Amino acid sequence: MKPSETRTLLFASIGGALEFYDFVIFVFFTSVIARIFFPPYLPEWVRQVQSFGIFAAGYFARPLGGIVLAHFGDTRGRKRVFTASVFLMALPTLTIGLLPTFASVGIAAPLLLLLMRIVQGAALGGEIPGAWVFVAEHAANRKSGLAIGLLTSGLCTGLLLGSLTCNRA
Fold first, then answer.
1. Where are the domains of the chain?
2. CA 77/CA 73 separation, integer angstroms
3. What gap in Å lies between CA 53 and CA 87, rounded to an integer?
4. Which of 75, 131, 156, 157 has the fewest Cβ atoms surrounding its Cβ within 10 A?
5. 81 vs 131: CA distance, rounded Å
6. 140 pLDDT higher than 80
7. pTM over 0.70
């Protein structure tokens, strides 16, 4: 691979790892999220089921994000959409960290959390397939399989980092 192709692959892999980390770390901290964003008078198991439901909502938004962002990737350019999807992931991730708790704003807290998770899911749904296509288009002939495999290993690294973070907390 040429140095420019290697850089593209490296940045795409790091971006994918960070996006997957941002997306999946939620599930590792459901007990904390349940305590912060849901009413304390509910049983713990109900709050955790609600947290898992919000996590699942992000997964359900992925196909929609894939369809919408793939369309724009085809018509406006994959690099531009790839950059936008990273921003679409970073903004709700930051917002989730700044959200008020249930104790301070009531039912608005889990609703805002749900909205941010849907945006994250849509961003991830558009970023991953777009990254695969982008890397495959920019890889040298007969190296696209290797490039896509390396990108996918970057995604798995994000999952690993999320689970390691949880084990340290």
1. 3-168
2. 5
3. 24
4. 75
5. 10
6. no
7. yes
